[in-house]
Automatic annotation (TrEMBL):
Pfam family, one: DUF72
Family matches, as InterPro entries: DUF72 (IPR002763), UPF0759_sf (IPR036520)
Domain of life: Bacteria
Species for this entry: Antiquaquibacter soli
Protein name from the UniProt record: DUF72 domain-containing protein
Length: 271
């Protein structure tokens, strides 16, 4: 079976995109609807900075086509402030905040670790064993939310669906067979990043999907965007993953040069 491929960008609300990617006349309220007709997925990053309201998740779900997919960047409170330690209640609050309202449009949850966080096997395993891998388990976790979430939670799922997780690591101590084996044991993908060597590149399939974040760092890509030959190589890579039966989530995160949606659409054309 050939894997499914979705391609998009990290976020969609950027003033510099107005008049470039977004035509004149497209209001901010309609930007998501417009973007979702040009790419097949978006990595939602507002959730990284704060918990979102259930009504927001519902509005994002309803503004996009039926086959659209969101990946969700998990809260920095868990990854950067608590640094994966003592996070049961924050995890419950995150899953209670409305993410499950996405229904079948929930693609993957991205856990981006800070560059200063080193690989500590015990700490990481204790975190990974708490992650729900299905919507019933996610609901059960959400029900253990803190009191402050009462009245602003979403505690149901429309179906028994898988919940996928990907880890983006940024400290070179993670570049080890022990980390790869741990990710494989818990069915978590290792995000395959393109950052011109700034962070470790771990090209390993550890579950039934791959997750790629393409930053187009200017040290490697002058101008902050991908040349046609670069996109050709990525198209071949992602096609190879699909041929192995792996689903693929691919996101361009080079928004500062107003290139992310252009590069995403260019890759989709090649696919």
């Amino acid at each position: 079976m050939t894997g499914r491929i979705v391609v998009g960008m990290a976020g969609w609300v950027y003033p510099d995109w107005r008049g470039t990617f977004y035509p004149k006349g497209v209001t901010q309220k309609n930007e998501l609807a417009y973007a979702s007709t040009h790419v097949t997925s978006i990595e939602l990053n507002g959730s990284f900075y704060s918990l979102q309201k259930p009504s927001s998740w519902v509005s994002w779900r309803d503004a996009t086509p039926d086959d659209f997919v969101f990946s969700v960047k998990a809260p920095r409170f868990i990854t950067h402030i608590r640094r994966l330690d003592d996070v049961h209640e924050p995890l419950a609050n995150f899953f209670a905040s409305g993410i499950l309202a996405l229904g079948g449009k929930l693609g993957c949850i991205l856990w981006q670790l800070p560059p200063s966080l080193e690989f500590e096997p015990y700490l990481l395993e204790r975190f990974l064993e708490q992650l729900p891998h299905g919507t019933p388990a996610a609901v059960a976790l959400a029900e253990e939310r803190s009191a402050r979430m009462h009245g602003r939670e979403h505690l149901e799922t429309d179906a028994d669906r898988p919940v996928r997780h990907a880890l983006e690591v940024r400290h070179r101590t993670f570049d080890s067979p022990e980390f790869v084996e741990l990710a494989r044991r818990y069915g978590v993908a290792i995000a395959f990043g393109d950052s011109a060597g700034k962070w470790p590149v771990i090209d390993e399939a550890t579950t039934d999907f791959r997750y790629a974040r393409l930053h187009a760092d200017e040290k490697k890509y002058p101008g902050g965007y991908y040349e046609p030959a670069d996109l050709d190589r990525w198209a071949a890579t992602v096609t190879g993953w699909a041929a192995e039966g792996l689903d693929s989530y691919v996101y361009f995160d080079n928004d500062t040069k107003v290139r992310a949606p252009i590069d995403a659409m260019s890759l989709l054309e090649r696919l």
